[in-house]
Amino acid sequence: MAQLGLVVLACAALVALAAATNVEQCSGKSFDNLNENVQLSPCKKPPCRLKKGTQQHITINFTPDEDLDDIQNKVTAKVLGLDVPFVGVDGNSICDKLFTESGEKANCPVKAGTKYVYKDSFPVLSIYPTLNTNVHWELKGKRDLICFTVPVRIS
Fold first, then answer.
1. Domain harbouring 33, CATH code
2. How much is the pTM?
C-alpha cells in the first residue's frame, strides 16, 4: 500500500514538472523553485508562441512572506528597446483570480506563509506587433512576490 502511494506521488510530481514552463529569474532576484511554480499554456518550451487572436493562460504558485491587502501584475514586453506594458494585464489586481493550494476560491487580503495559486488568462491582441521578445512578469505586493522573464514569439 505504501508503495502505491509513492508511485502516485511520483506520477503527480512528473505531471507537475511536465506542465511547468522554463522561465528565467529576473536580474538580481532569486525565487525558490521558480520553474516549478510558473506554467504558461499553451507553451511546451520557450520561446512561447503567443498567437494573435487567442487566449494565453498562466498559473503561478506563490507563498507571501507577509500579509498583503493587494497584489498587482506588472507585465511588460521589450519592443524596440522599450519596456511596453502588456495591455489588458499590466497593472491589474490579481485578488479576484486567487485560489488556495487545494483549489478553493481565495481573495485578498492574503496571509503570510499560506500557499496561493494565481490563475489567469488574457487575450493576445491583434494590435500586438509580430516579433520575438522577452516578457517580464512580476507579482507585486509591498515588494516582488515573484518575478521572471520568458522568451516569446508573438505571431
1. 2.60.40.770
2. 0.81
Confidence grade of residue 71 (pLDDT, cut at 50, 70, 90): very high
- With bands split at pLDDT 50, 70 and 90, how would you rate the model's confidence at 37? very high
Q: Which domain holds residue 15?
A: 2-154
Residue 38 or residue 29, greater confidence: 38
Quote the number of domains for the chain: 1
Could you give the maximum distance between any two Cα atoms of the chain, in Å? 58
Angle at 125 between CA 92 and CA 26, to 5 degrees: 50
Could you tell me whether strands 144-154 and 48-50 are parallel, antiparallel, or unpaired per DSSP bridges? parallel
The C-alpha cell that represents 65 in the structure block: 512572506
Q: CA-CA distance, 73 to 138, in Å (whole number)?
A: 6
